[in-house]
Every structure is written in structure tokens, then in C-alpha cells.
Amino acid sequence: MSESTLLQLQCFEALVAHGSFSAAAAHLNRTHPTVHAALTSLENQLGIVLLDRSGYRVALTAEGAALHARTVLFLRQFDELRREAAQLAAGEETELRVVVGDLCPLPETLGMLRRFFGASTGTKLNLMVETISGPWERLDDGDCDLIFHHLDKPSPQYEAIALFEVKLVPVAAPGFFAGTVSDALTPDDMRPYMQCVIKDSSRRPSQANYYLIDGARTCSVADQLMKRELILQGLAWGHLPVHLIQADLQENRLLSLEGRHLRGATLPHYAARRRDVVHGPVAERLWSQLQDSAT
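That's the LysR family transcriptional regulator sequence above. Prediction below.
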């Protein structure tokens, strides 16, 4: 495939992702005419119309949608091939992409990474934080090399190292709940009260119901720190990891609602990576260090 055709596909994907020629041009660091010419040339070359340009944002035609899925896959594989070739040429990866799930205890998780990257100064750590199913989507899409997260659905597609357990408990601020706080509280008792939940960062959100009470009013936040603060202020109740609120519970800034009917949970957390991709020497050394720390 010639370079011009590769650019055409990159422009096509950028247009779909960003919705306009100007936004696609900015993303690719190209000019607006270059992107427009690339798409026109691609459509002429294929003999089909890929984009409906009649609206404010460009939209895929039926033919464009069919080609787009294959284009995304091709570009992802091309990027992986280019990255692996660069790794082989240099002998060492220049970057490792790591995703940390929102429930991970940060001192322990970042401490493991600090010990490793402190001795691997030639490799940059690209650290991302994702929530709910976001880490697994990043891993499945090839957007990262490694994740730290809980494992909802074990699969032979992944290899995983058990690292630590995270305990979640339902909590509220003193005075938030009008009734008596006891282990007899039921979901029906909590239904009139605002429940705070974490927003899934995935582009394809999980359908899993994480402690959500049917019929309850909810508010969603992007991270656990915002959720903790909102609950501390008496605006809602919700489940939080114990490592984040240990002092709040001890000093009665938060009250545990856990009981016979409102359950907490203990989620084992893992380092996980895909089996079906080539891992470079730096990634392999990090994996070995994580295995040693887990034993």
C-alpha cells in the first residue's frame, strides 16, 4: 500500500472520529485542503461515497460504515507493526502505556511503577486512568500494554497477576439518612435518596449494574475522589473503596451502611495484559517484577 493511500485512510478515520474536516486536519497536523483532497481521492479510487456532507457534521454512508470498521482495524494493526518495528530497531521500548483502574489503591500501584521506572530511565511511562470497563476497552483496542484493574470476566485472551484486594462499602454522611442506620437497611429504604455512581469511561459502556438501586435518583461523577467529596457533603450516598475513606470512617465523617441487605464487596485486582501481542523487553521485565512482588 502506497503512502498516499495510507494517508487517505488516516484522513477518513480522523474525519469520522472528529466530525469535521477542520477538526480532522488539526488532529493529523495537516491542512484542511489536504484532508479534503485525500477523502475525495479515496472515494474516487473506490468508486463509492463514504461520507454524507450535507449536515453540520459529516456522517457515514452505509458504504462508509462498512469500510470504516475495516479501516480502524487496519490502522490499529499498522500502528502496532510500526511500534514493534521501532522496538526491535532500538532494542528497548521508548514508551510503555499503562492504565490504572479507578479503584486501585494509588500508593501501592504507583509505588510498584516508581520502583520499576526509576531503574528504566530510557522508557517513558504513559499513564492513563480509566473507570469501570474503560481499562478493559483500552486493553482490547490495543491502546495500552498493561492495566491494573479488577477482573470481571476471566478469559484465556489475558494473562493476569493477582496483586491486591479492594473492599467497597456503602457509606453516607451523618444526618444524610433520615432513619436509623442499622444492618437492617434495605434497598427499598435507600430508594428515595440520591445515589452517586461512577461514570464508565468506556466508549462502549458495560451493562453491568454496580450496586445501582432500581428506581433511585442518581448522579454520576468521573472519579472516586469527586464521589467521596460529594458523599462527604451530604449530597448523595454510594459505595467507596475502604482504602480511600478509612480515616473518614474512623473519625465519623462517613457512616457505613453495610448490612444484611446493603452489601459491600471485595474485588481482587490484577495486573493484566493480552497474550496475543508481542511484548518488548522492557514490558517483559516489568511483568517479571510484578510477578515477583505478588509472590
